[in-house]
Design goal:
The protein has 334 residues and is of the alpha/beta class. The chain is built from 13 helices and ten strands.
Length: 334
């Protein structure tokens, strides 16, 4: 192991670590040595400095998906949330790049999808009822909900590079399309279209309605896309809470936030981040949710696992281990 870490540390010091914020070299330039460090990070790729700068600017409390999953599991396990005794429900956009739920599935098993475009829980009360009928006997409910946004290697919000593509594309495409459509209607003086249940594009119409109802707030923000994500998040949260009936007496864990997607290149799993906004617990037989954010932060080792700090610490650790291994080899050779 010492030899592997030594090689990785040397490679990073030569190619990747331009400053204290990030990896420096784009993921597509990765070699076997850098990939070894990526494995140490739980499969994390190396976002560019521009990507990390944008992440730090807009979401300074972003954390790795691995840290999120660790925090969730450790926070709720004392309340009886286990893999065999829980069922995971997910309300995220069906975009194939949204894979943070994979890390939760390692702890809670296969997820039940509750959502459609943009992560809005379109399955509603009927979907939630079906979901609860699948929960293990005397089991618990875990619900993960999060809209998403891409940040490209050049640091552009709303863009990212998908695997196998030479150009960046939009993320979240549904949210971006809704923003563009509403902006066009507002500027053109066109009334919003009427949405019916028979509309073949019903879900996108609903996303547009969410944006239109809050467009004044979004348009007046210095960062309209960030503001739109906040609006979307709050609407998703409200709908998730509404679809849970008062009669549901099972323990429920709610984990909400924003998923940040980074470039994929030739690695479909990518290196995504999670911005925690709500970590809530409803105990069995109780009606109210309790805030569990502080226990979650502690369980996730917040300082060590927060996205930027986590990567910086890993680079430093790899370099230090490499230097130590080199010193040992030098001593042996002498």
């Amino acid at each position: 192991c010492g030899a592997v870490i030594f090689i990785a540390g040397a490679a990073l010091s030569q190619r990747g670590h331009r400053n204290s914020l990030g990896w420096g070299a784009p993921a597509r330039e990765a070699d076997s040595a850098a990939d070894a460090v990526a494995q140490m990070l739980g499969g994390m790729m190396r976002p560019t400095e521009s990507c990390l700068d944008a992440l730090q600017k807009h979401y300074p409390n972003a954390m790795s998906g691995k840290a999120m999953a660790k925090g969730v599991f450790d926070t709720f396990k004392k309340w009886g949330f286990s893999k065999k005794g829980s069922l995971l429900g997910v309300s995220t956009c069906p975009d194939e790049i949204n894979r943070l739920m994979d890390k939760l599935e390692l702890n809670y098993g296969d997820a039940f999808p509750l959502s459609g475009l943009a992560g809005v829980p379109f399955t509603g009360k009927t979907g939630f009822a079906a979901f609860t009928h699948h929960v293990p006997d005397n089991g618990c409910i875990v619900i993960f909900f999060a809209p998403h946004v891409g940040i490209s290697s050049s640091g552009v919000m709303g863009k990212m590079r998908r695997a196998g593509m030479k150009d960046d594309s939009g993320a979240c495409g549904s949210l971006l399309a809704a923003l563009a459509a509403v902006k066009h209607r507002k500027e053109s003086g066109i009334e919003r279209r009427v949405i019916t249940k028979n509309d073949d594009d019903y879900q996108q119409g609903e996303v547009e309605k969410i944006i239109e109802a809050n467009y004044h707030k979004i348009a007046n923000s210095p960062e309209p896309l960030v503001a739109a994500l906040e609006v979307l998040y709050e609407e998703i949260k409200a709908r998730v809470l509404r679809m849970i009936p008062a009669s549901c007496d099972r323990p429920i864990a709610l984990v909400g936030g924003i998923q940040v997607n980074t470039d994929r290149y030739d690695h479909p799993s990518g290196n995504d981040f999670f911005v925690p906004k709500d970590v809530l617990l409803k105990k069995k037989g109780e009606n109210n949710f309790e805030n569990q954010m502080e226990p979650f932060k502690q369980a996730a080792s917040w300082a060590a696992y927060t996205g930027l700090c986590y990567m910086e610490a890993a680079v430093a650790a790899a370099a230090a281990a490499g230097a130590a291994a080199a010193a040992v080899n030098t001593k042996r050779n002498n």
